[in-house]
Design goal:
- With about 290 residues, the chain is of the alpha/beta class.
- It has a single domain (about 1-285), classed as UDP-N-acetylmuramoyl-L-alanine:D-glutamate ligase.
- Helices cover about 30% and strands about 25% of the residues.
- A hairpin with a 5-residue loop joins strand 6 and strand 7 (about 100-105).
- Helix 1 packs across helix 7 (about 235-250), helix 3 (about 115-120) runs parallel beside helix 4 (about 140-150) and helix 7 (about 235-250) runs antiparallel to helix 8 (about 255-270).
- The longest helix is centred in the last third of the chain and has 15 residues, at about 255-270.
- The chain is globular, with a radius of gyration of 18 Å.
């Protein structure tokens, strides 16, 4: 089948720093690199590298030709990637010696999507396809409604966390993916536990503590152990996990199996510096022994 990914495409500017800067602090970066990123692009590349068929719905500016080339090279279909007069999105990413990051994001063209563009793209979807989105574009809820009407399973990564965006998506989502911080924020805002949400499946990534799957229909909660690795850069690990998770489900894997493989892909990713450009292929994931 096909994964329809409504998502952002960014230029990621990486700065290696001795520590993450505090308020008013100026520090010198030890290294610099530019790469392909954006949660949408990362998830799309991860799913494509997991050997799924992926259609990316998004936009880039006049400066985004190199991003288009890289996405195509990684196997992502760009039929529905629009051009915009607005500059492409970009992110300034500081990464410290422990691999933790601090990110400043400029949305740019990612926030200028048109309803007609989304409608035209999803008009080609068929029942059984999956729809995937996150919070770095506009039109998430509108697109999710269209996807549901076409018989698609809706997967939503609630990041970056935005209260209004998440509240608008909860009633439209079949599978919710979020990290531990986002989960705590959501429970605090709604004043209810994740198990009470109107979403059938919820997957929480817990960083060094592994992953958790909540089946709200049955009340079943299953924890998955972490894979210990030496961390180089955590940027894009969650996106890698989500892309691999959705690709596994698209291929017919049971949730537990899809989560396990996605966790392995994310663990391998954090041993590498960068985002979309270093997301591992399925062959690398399957052949890797932690």
């Amino acid at each position: 089948m096909t994964i329809w990914c409504l998502g952002s495409v960014n230029a990621d500017h990486f700065y290696k720093v001795p520590h993450l800067p505090g308020p008013g602090e100026t520090i010198a970066a030890r290294d610099y690199a530019r790469g392909l990123g954006g949660k949408g692009a990362n998830m799309a590349v991860a799913a494509a590298r997991a050997e799924a068929r992926v259609e990316l719905i998004g936009a880039i500016g006049p400066d985004g030709g190199w991003m288009r080339d890289r996405l195509a090279g990684y196997g992502v279909s760009l039929t529905h990637l629009a051009g915009s007069e607005t500059a492409s999105g970009h992110a300034l990413i500081a990464v410290d010696e422990a691999g933790e990051n601090q990110i400043t994001l400029f949305p740019g063209a990612n926030r200028g999507l048109e309803v007609s563009q989304v409608t035209a793209a999803l008009g080609q979807a068929v029942p059984g396809d999956l729809f995937l989105c996150q919070n770095e574009t506009n039109l998430q809820a509108e697109a999710a409604e269209l996807a549901r009407a076409k018989g698609l399973r809706v997967v939503y990564a609630a990041a970056p966390f935005e209260v209004t965006a998440v509240q608008a998506m909860l009633g439209l989502t079949d599978l919710l993916v979020l990290n531990a911080v986002e989960a705590a924020q959501l429970e605090a805002v709604l004043d209810q536990p994740l198990t009470a949400l109107p979403v059938q499946d919820i997957v929480v990534t817990l960083g060094a503590e592994g992953m958790r799957w909540i089946d709200t229909d049955s009340g079943k909660i299953k924890d998955f152990p972490p894979i210990p690795v030496r961390v180089t850069d955590t940027t894009g690990a969650g996106d890698t996990f989500t892309g691999y998770l959705v690709a596994g489900l698209d291929a017919g894997a049971e949730m537990a199996m899809a989560i396990t493989r996605a966790g392995k892909a994310a663990a391998l990713k954090v041993t590498r510096s960068g985002t979309a450009d270093v997301i591992p292929t399925l062959a690398e994931v399957e052949g890797w022994t932690p």
